[in-house]
Amino acid sequence: MTEAADIALTPSAAARVAAIAQKQGKPAILRLSVDGGGCAGFQYRFGLADAVETDDTVAVQDGVTLVVDEVSLDLVRGSAVDFVESLGGASFQVTNPNAASGCGCGTSFSI
Questions:
Q1: Range with top average pLDDT, 31-40, 70-79, 83-92, 100-109
Q2: What is d(CA 41, CA 100) in angstroms, rounded to the nearest whole number?
Q3: Model confidence pLDDT, tens digit, residues 24-67
Q4: 2-110: which CATH topology?
């Protein structure tokens, strides 16, 4: 486990994770991973985690933990995970400085 400034969780995202975790009776740990696919080449995956793995990089905000595995971190280093509510809906979003382009849905990107 590495705690670093390589990834960040905004207060808005932390509040949303805490609410979801409490409803589901799980620890307030959000896992961000990157998979191949999506309309732009890579896609973000979010899910609650039961524990922090030894090779995870960790960011903590307001008592909520964001974890990213070593392989995914290379693609999202320097990013921030936010929770945004708008007229179009509510979702977790990644502001990724490594992405050369994204897609309309906001869940996939290319490098």
A1: 70-79
A2: 11
A3: 999 999 999 988 765 657 888 999 999 999 999 999 999 999 99
A4: Hypothetical Protein Aq_1857; Chain: A; (2.60.300)
